[in-house]
Amino acid sequence: MKKVRNNRLAQLVGLFLLPLASFAQQDSARITKHEFSIQQAVDYAIKNNVNVKNALVDVQLQVQQNREFTSNAYPHINANLGTTYNPNVATQVLPNFISPATYQVLIDEGVKDGNGQPVVMPNDFGFIAAQFGTKFSANVGISLQQILFDGQVFVGLMARGAAIDLRKKNAEITEEMIKANIYKVYYQLVVSKTQVELLDANIALIEKLLKDTRIIYENGFAERLDVDKVSVQLTNLQTEKNKVLNTISNGYYGLKMLMGMPISDELILTDKLTDEEIKAGILEKSVYAYDDRKEYQSVKIGKTLNEYNVRRYKLSQIPTLSLSAQYAKSAQRDKWNFFSKGDWFTISNVNLNINIPIFNGFFTKSKIEQAKLEVQKIDNQIAALEISIDNEVMTAKNNYRSAIITMDFQKKNMELAEKVYNQTKKKYEMGTGSQMEINTAQTDMKTAQTNYITALYDAIIAKVDFMKATGKL
Predict the structure, then answer these.
(1) Residue 104's CB: how many other CB atoms inside 10 A?
(2) Beta strands 136-149; 320-333: pairing state
(3) Cα of 431 vs its chain's centroid, Å
(4) What is the DSSP string of 161-219?
(5) What are 237-270's pLDDT values in tens digits?
(6) 278-285 contacts: CB < 8 A, separation 24 or more?
(7) SS3 readout for 374-389
(8) What's the Cα-to-Cα distance from 453 to each of 69, 360, 449, rounded to whole Å?
(9) pLDDT 10s digits, 309-340
(10) Which CA distances in Å does 30 have to 23, 259, 260?
């Protein structure tokens, strides 16, 4: 029986070490060992978690979008170069303005026609078909456009800082969410060490009980059934430990993924957790302000941006002023020889343009009212968020207090159950207790330990939720 038990333990250890063995087969140069405190784990995640990285990329995207908008306030300078070939120069039909002058000269000179009659001015001289231009032309020039005053552009420039702040705040919200999850998973894995230690202690107790029961059985003071019952208890505990170890292993994989760490890397958690640390003076510092919450800060920035929108539409009703200028050279040729000698004619102009809005069918008025209503909606969201924060803080505070009370109660209950088990075991060894009593005591002790571990988990999560609700995570 002892050999079978040892084989089972070897199998359980082998199962737990199997993932590590598979990692060892990989290229050792790719495996990195990390020994992290909770703060180091959070710092690593902020640098490597994909959601955080994308949130920071969004900040850079907003920077580039701001530059795109800022370009509207800078001069726009363009150069152009072109040439045109006209296989058929356009023909223009014009009234015959040459013949009247010729007839007038003939009439003034008294010239007579073939019949000997004085020349008379005809009533209609018809049209002349003429072609203006050359087959080839070329032009080269540069143009400038500059906004001198546009209310919408200036408001947009003022809103750039708020747009950046909004993206940064969203990145902070993402970081806080990742941080809260890492806190929970990290400390749950830390607590799982206590769970394994309790299981190991129970296994050691049952192994001792099994050994004592065999001795009692061999001396004729117990039945074979009693030995089998203890063996079943031992197997159940070993199976439970195997499941717990598997869950812990998967928990490490999940924490690595949350942190953005390669799964093949080795992660060791260095922090420890005690009941005193869980209860350490958070409730005494439970004073909070709405502005401590990053979600609240984000909504306030959103309101500022919408107020800029109202100003933008209002300023769209005033005139805009812009400047444009052009300088160019053009040439015409009968042959394409623009790089040879020939005349290039200069074209230049400077324009000052004023655009005065007069009436656009109440479009701008509608846009202003829409923007005001959006501000009103955000005011409503802020009021609702304040109520939600109050509710979240009060609920988290109650849950935290309740979790601490439950944890303390379950710890005392576990200690009492262990004491009862030890006393019952002594009675059993002395022959004054029954197998049923010790089985019941063992079951009660296992239940109390499970309840304590559950209470410890709940207390950790309640503490993190309370810190997050008060904006102090």
Answers:
(1) 12
(2) antiparallel
(3) 67
(4) HHHHHHHHHHHHHHHHHHHHHHHHHHHHHHHHHHHHHHHHHHHHHHHHHHHHHHHHHHT
(5) 999 999 999 999 999 999 999 999 999 999 999 9
(6) 278/404, 278/407, 278/456, 278/459, 278/460, 278/463, 279/404, 282/400, 282/463, 282/466, 282/467, 282/472, 283/397, 283/400, 283/401, 283/466, 285/472
(7) HHHHHHHHHHHHHHHH
(8) 57, 70, 6
(9) 999 999 999 999 999 999 999 998 888 888 88
(10) 10, 17, 15
**Are the C-beta atoms of residues 52 and 174 closer than 8 Å to each other?**
yes
Tokens in use for 329? 């050279």
Q: 398 in helix, strand or coil?
A: helix
d(CA 311, CA 156): 10
Domain extents in the chain: 95-134
pLDDT in tens, 344-368: 999 999 999 999 999 888 999 999 9
- Distance separating alpha carbons of residues 237 and 247, to the nearest angstrom: 15
Secondary structure in 3-state letters for 38-106: HHHHHHHHHHHCHHHHHHHHHHHHHHHHHHHHHHHHCCEEEEEEEEEECCCCCEEEEECCCHHHHHHHH
Q: Stretch 130-142: mean pLDDT, rounded?
A: 88
Place of tokens 């990692």: 23
Quote the CA–CA distance of 92 and 132 in Å, as a whole number: 8
